């Protein structure tokens, strides 16, 4: 699960991606399913802002309801972008990010949450998993198919590819 960073009151460098999280019980809830923010600022009892360095990957869950029940469920898996990089604008995310996965509707959101759980079940933090895995999960769910499972073998291959780039 998401582990909040230590609250920070310092300056915010301009290259951070800020995620505004609101919690109004039973009406509107936005939370991070995974990610490693470098800053976490509490604005008031209902709102906080988590900030991520460029390249960081996080999952934002958004849910809303009215008197008759749930009206919207979304999950976005996003890679924070650096200064001057092109990005997709998204609700609650300033300035935006590279969208790796986006699904709407509770049945699909629950499939993504299950995919996240399977990554974490093999002992890998979801925010360090191969970004291509999240793209694959998005495309498979959009096509009405089950996503492929992430494996420790695939993760090792991702780490080796990543080491070559750096």
Describe the structure.
Strands 1-2-5-6-8 form a five-stranded antiparallel β-barrel. It has three helices and eight strands, in the order ββββββββααα. It has helices at residues 106-121, 131-142, 152-165; strands at residues 17-24, 28-34, 39-42, 47-52, 57-66, 69-80, 88-90, 93-104. With 166 residues, it is of the alpha+beta class.
Residues in helices, as a percent range = 25-40%
Number of strands: 8
Strand content: 35-45%
Shape field: globular
The spatial strand order of the largest sheet comes to 1-2-5-6-8
Count of alpha/pi helices: 3
What number is the mean pLDDT?
91
Give the biggest sheet. Answer: 5 strands, antiparallel, barrel
Radius of gyration computed on alpha carbons: 16 Å
Give the termini separation: 29 Å
Low-confidence stretches: none
Q: Find the structural class using helix and strand composition.
A: alpha+beta
Secondary-structure element string: EEEEEEEEHHH
């Amino acid at each position: 699960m998401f582990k909040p960073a230590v609250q920070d009151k310092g300056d915010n460098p301009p290259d951070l991606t800020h995620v505004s999280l609101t919690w109004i019980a039973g009406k509107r809830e936005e939370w991070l399913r995974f990610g490693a923010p470098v800053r976490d600022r509490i604005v008031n009892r209902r709102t906080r802002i988590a900030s991520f360095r460029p390249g960081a990957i996080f999952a934002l869950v958004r849910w809303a309801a009215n008197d008759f029940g749930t009206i919207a469920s979304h999950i976005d898996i996003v890679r924070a972008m650096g200064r001057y990089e092109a990005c997709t604008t998204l609700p609650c995310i300033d300035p935006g990010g590279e969208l790796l996965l986006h699904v709407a509707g509770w049945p699909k959101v629950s499939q993504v949450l299950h995919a996240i759980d399977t990554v974490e079940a093999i002992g890998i933090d979801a925010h360090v998993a191969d970004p291509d895995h999240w793209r694959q999960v998005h495309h498979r769910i959009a096509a009405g198919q089950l996503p492929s499972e992430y494996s420790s073998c695939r993760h090792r291959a991702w780490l080796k590819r990543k080491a070559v780039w750096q």
